[in-house]
């Protein structure tokens, strides 16, 4: 739980992942045969096959994106209020009344200022205002400080992240602002520590810029030339009051979600079978998921192609400020990632290239 909390609290808006990636490097280093960062900012760790199934071991790529959605300072007005541009797909309905952190870089030093995204106060609203969703372009950040003080710390282009931190909500239910995809990063690191008897080389990729259209992982895919790819991201739980019965698929607490298909990838049949058989062998709970879109899409079609899909804990309310998961689903994801490298070679026949 301690690592999950640390990962969930460290800021890392798309394009500003450096600090979070440092933490990932530290966590992966003791378990990696090789560790490097590429020019996009992806962190890549290799654990070589300890029981290779063939002379040149197959390569299995795990990818979890480290970036979280956030904002960039677009303008500082004469009273010190900050206008911002979205980085990634925030739902604007969820933003008013939230606390944010501005990562100021003015004057060559890093200064963190705290702020709020206010909503129009009641005494200034008319009936139409109450029905209207305020678009992101009209929202602003208020630090309560003078324009002078704000300008001394913050400049246009600085990142803004949500301030909400990790919490244990009830029993094994946890909330955080960025479980998409920090629960994936957690599962990636936790599994990497436990992999043994692996018949394939395992590459753990902590990718950048997924939230702005899967921009980070392609360079890592190019370098690794993976045979098999499992991306780790949130699954879509339909067990909420907003979903119709026909939209129900994964449920909180039901195990890791295995993506059969999403908007960008159709899960490879052999890989799906391999993952499900691994779950059954090791008593790991899993569910069948139809998802959004992940890093798997880019790795699947890079170079000569890879057998690809995605797994991950059901995450309620992704792309909002209050994301919710069940600890057991996160652990099931990590367990599947830890066990699969023993069997991964079985899904690619020896005479395939
Ligand atoms: Zn994601």
Describe this structure in words.
- It contains nine helices and 17 strands.
- The protein is an alpha+beta fold and 353 residues long.
- The chain folds into two domains: 2-68 and 178-347, Aminopeptidase; 70-162, Beta Barrel (Elongation Factor Tu (Ef-tu), domain 3), CATH 2.40.30.40.
- It has an eight-stranded mixed β-sheet, with helices on both faces. Strands 7-6-9-4-5-8 form a six-stranded antiparallel β-sheet.
- Strand 4 and strand 5 form a beta hairpin.
- The chain is globular, with a radius of gyration of 21 Å.
Features:
single chain; Aminopeptidase; 2 domains; eight-stranded mixed β-sheet; globular; binds zinc ion
Summarize the structure.
The chain is an alpha+beta fold. Helix content is 25%, strand content 25%. It binds zinc ion (ZN).
For the sheet with most strands, the description reads:
8 strands, mixed
Q: Label the CATH architecture of the largest domain.
A: 3-Layer(aba) Sandwich
**DSSP summary: helix tally:** 9
Helix amount: 10-25%
Secondary structure topology:
Blueprint: H1 2-9, H2 18-28, E1 34-37, E2 43-47, E3 59-65, E4 70-76, E5 82-87, E6 98-104, E7 111-117, H3 127-131, E8 140-141, H4 147-153, E9 159-162, E10 167-170, E11 173-176, H5 179-194, E12 201-207, H6 217-224, E13 228-232, E14 256-261, H7 269-282, E15 286-290, H8 296-300, E16 307-312, E17 323-326, H9 327-339
This protein binds zinc ion.
Zinc ion binds at residues 65, 180-181, 210, 233-234.
